[in-house]
Design a protein that fits this description.
The protein has four helices and six strands. The protein is about 30% helix and about 35% strand. It starts with a helix and ends with a strand. It is of the alpha+beta class.
Length: about 140
């Protein structure tokens, strides 16, 4: 999370990423699992940690996010495909939203999945492009 290639696409990442920040971050993500029965996963590829991502409930919507280590950026499409297959099989997820910062320019993968642009929104003081993918 402290790599500039990751931070440039994470407008909510405004503080230094240190041990305390990590501890708070993990506690928040674990609370999502307790509250909603679903949250983010640690993602492994060939037994090695490559990043984190998954679904987090924001209001009545399930938002999908994915953060990969820079040397694993090429795995994003495959990981997202598996996550969307999970969402389709999960009755509690009728659709998935994606909140992407305006710095993300290559959005073709989202449209190939069938996601549709909804609107530009502000979330926690930052601007995002909101997309939606129906999973039913």
């Amino acid at each position: 999370m402290s790599d500039v290639r990751i931070a440039e696409h994470m407008p909510l990442l405004t503080s230094k990423w240190d041990r305390n920040t990590v501890t708070e971050f993990v506690a928040i993500k674990e609370e999502c699992w307790r509250r909603d029965g679903l949250g983010h996963w640690a993602i492994l590829y060939n037994g090695s940690y490559v990043g984190w991502g998954g679904f987090q409930k924001k209001g009545d919507e399930w938002d999908y996010g994915l953060v990969l280590k820079p040397d694993s950026f090429g795995l994003g499409a495959r990981i997202t495909k598996k996550a969307i297959e999970f969402a389709i099989a999960n009755e509690q997820i009728p659709f998935v939203t994606f909140l992407l910062p305006p710095t993300r320019k290559n959005l073709g993968g989202l449209t190939r999945l069938g996601a549709m642009f909804v609107e530009k929104i502000e979330y926690n003081g930052a601007q995002f492009l909101k997309y939606r993918l129906d999973t039913e």
